[in-house]
Amino acid sequence: MTAENPTGPLGGHLDDDDFPAYTMGRAAEMLGTTQGFLRAIGEARLITPLRSAGGHRRYSRYQLRVAARARELVDQGTPIESACRIVILEDQLEEAQRINAEYRRAAEATDR
Question: What is the pTM of this model?
Fold first, then answer.
């Protein structure tokens, strides 16, 4: 088995944060929450789980991190809809800051 052509049950997805590896039950267990919470943040469009061939929700590690952040806010008393909006805005801000940093690096490179 090589890194270029991984084989096995996960097909080389062990390092893929976006691979939908976790069932709803396992995801809820890992987050210490209920399946209803996962459904609620899905309905609020914070995360959109992929579906297995049988139609079951499957979550990635990235989605679990997002859900964990929403749970932190809910645990602090923030309504779930507001928590989801905050997490979305935090994500958008992080992306904007990343893009801004790239523009700055490009501008500095052209100034030299």
Answer: 0.76
Q: What is the per-residue pLDDT across 34-57, written as a single tens digit (0 to 9) for each?
A: 999 999 999 999 999 999 888 899
Structure tokens at 29: 């267990």
The owner of tokens 């100034």 is 111
What are the Cα distances from residue 100, in Å, to 21, 49, 92, 95? Answer: 33, 30, 12, 9
In 3-state terms, what secondary structure has residue 86? helix
Range 64-81 burial, b when 16+ CB lie within 10 A, else e: bebbebbbebbeeeeebe
Best CATH choice for the domain 22-111 from the list 1.10.1660.10, 3.40.50.720, 3.30.428.10, 3.40.50.300: 1.10.1660.10
Domain boundaries, the chain: 22-111
In contact, 33 and 74? CB cutoff 8 Å: no
